Amino acid sequence: MNAADKDAFIGDGIIQIDVREASRCLYDDGSMEGSNLQRSGACPICRTNAGPVALREGEYSGRQCVCGVIYIDPLPAHPVDAPIDHHHRVYYSAPARARVGWVKAFTQRGRLLEIGCGDGEFTAAAIRAGFTVEAVEPSDERATRVERTLGITVERALIEDSRLPEGRYDTSFHVDLLSHFPDPVAALRAIAAKVAPSGTICFEVGLFSNLSPFWQRLVGRPNMPTHMWFFDALAIERLLDAAGLKMIAMRRYPVGLSTALSTVLGSRRVAAAPDSHAPLAQGWAAAPYYRLHMFLRYGIGRWLPMGGPQTAFVAARHKTDSA
Ligand SMILES: [Zn+2]
Prior knowledge:
Elements: H1 19-23, E1 53-57, E2 60-64, E3 70-73, H2 90-93, H3 96-104, E4 110-115, H4 121-128, E5 131-136, H5 140-150, E6 154-155, E7 169-175, H6 184-194, E8 195-207, H7 213-219, E9 229-230, H8 233-242, E10 245-254, H9 256-272, H10 286-299, E11 310-318
Parallel strand pairs: 4-5, 4-7, 5-6, 7-8
Antiparallel strand pairs: 1-2, 2-3, 3-9, 8-11, 10-11
Protein name: Class I SAM-dependent methyltransferase
Pfam families: Methyltransf_23
Organism: Mesorhizobium mediterraneum
């Protein structure tokens, strides 16, 4: 499942999870589903809920926790319709090799579990790099397409519900899902359980917490409740720790330039058609636009000074008693 969102915010893709399905995790006592009651949000790491408001969007606030997380408050009372992916395939295909390269820096070969394979852009690059890839993907349509074109096995499931054997994989990868999981600690635990004790857990995540007012304005709306959690680098380390994992590496790319580009285009589009979820660039312009976007992020972005919004490649291992 490729992640993402209304382009005006993270500029990173729209999550493909079936949020209706995911939301039932929020209401595990069964009593809330379909009701109008709302529950207060809480930090998914610290489980506290008294932080000051750092973001506002519609009926939602983003509260700042001392650990670095901004968490949604209240939790969405109704399941949100499954978002549509507004991004061109280049959005996923252009960085695919760099993402595989990141995984390969820690695990050179073996079985790779991809969480949310979407249309298989990363999948294909990982297969070319020599990995045996298996995937979980809640969209049956996408799963079928990837199985047919790439000849791999795709389990139709959310990772939290996956029945794939524990400890089967040498490594795992996902992109931009942590802001969307109903419980990101539980999701990371579920992923970690599938990875062998000596394996690595790799992913990419946006770092959009603790932005200055300047960057907050440039980034635009946070797109809650599709995004429920926002992290900074320290919060990711703490999140991993809470899931029984230890961060072994993080490579950050400032994404201010690409975010500014999509925010400017996005705000023009929103002004023209407020309800439009159409891609920022369409037709012949789409591929060049997204190539530029990706070049600003991962090409030029790599050499820009840190600060403002970032995207981060992360690698982690299981914590051991001696860790
Ligand atoms: Zn916290």
